[in-house]
Amino acid sequence: MDIYLIRHTTPAIERGTCYGFSDLDVANTFIEEATRIKQLLPGKPFAVYASPLQRCSKLARFLFDDHFTIDDRLKELNFGDWEMQRWDDIGPDALQAWMDNYVYVRVPGGESYQDLYNRSVAIFTEIVARGEDAVIVAHSGVIRSLLAYVTNTPLDKSFELRVEYGRMARLKAENGQVTVSGVNE
Q1: How far apart are the C-alpha atoms of 103 and 115, rounded to whole Å?
Q2: 3-state SS track over 65-81
């Protein structure tokens, strides 16, 4: 079973802004980025799952028309009270308190990285259990969580797993084992 984890294309937002659950549109480079991804996908049927946020659903629609399933568990980290604020405006004390233990500490009004990991792994294990070739169109936090899960990387070390805009990771599931075949393709 082949599984492709595809990160959405570049979002239309000013650099330095905190966003996760916010429903951002895509940048004007969308067609170029999405076409590149489409050319890399093998021409075979997939079960397709996407975050409902438009930066993912637009890409899923471009790649697979309307043949995909939306699942809220594929949303990015909920940054709660910090959503759409400049990182510089959040304040160094608040940021440091979160960064000291971001795996378990919830952002005010939001969630922790562990929360995101739990919901991401829950849907991933359901998808793997179905045994169909699959594509997941999601966000860096979700993809990073899934790569950490598959590679047994501790969550506090998972930010070393880089996930770029408009790139994908390829996984292979065989005999109950999931392995990584490629990242940032």
Answers
A1: 8
A2: CCCCEECHHHCCCCCHH
95-115 exposure pattern, b = at least 16 Cβ within 10 A, e = fewer? beebeeebeeeebeebbbbeb
Q: What is the pLDDT of residues 64-94, one digit of tens each?
A: 999 999 999 999 999 999 999 999 999 899 9
Query: 3-class SS at 158?
Result: helix
Residue 124, H or E segment: helix 113-130
Q: What is the pTM of this model?
A: 0.95
Distance CA 158, CA 144 (A): 7
Structure tokens at 68: 């995909």
The H-or-E segment that residue 6 falls in is strand 2-7
Q: Which of 142, 135, 16 is nearest to 78 (CA)?
A: 142
What values do phi and psi take at 38, rounded to 5? Answer: -60, -40
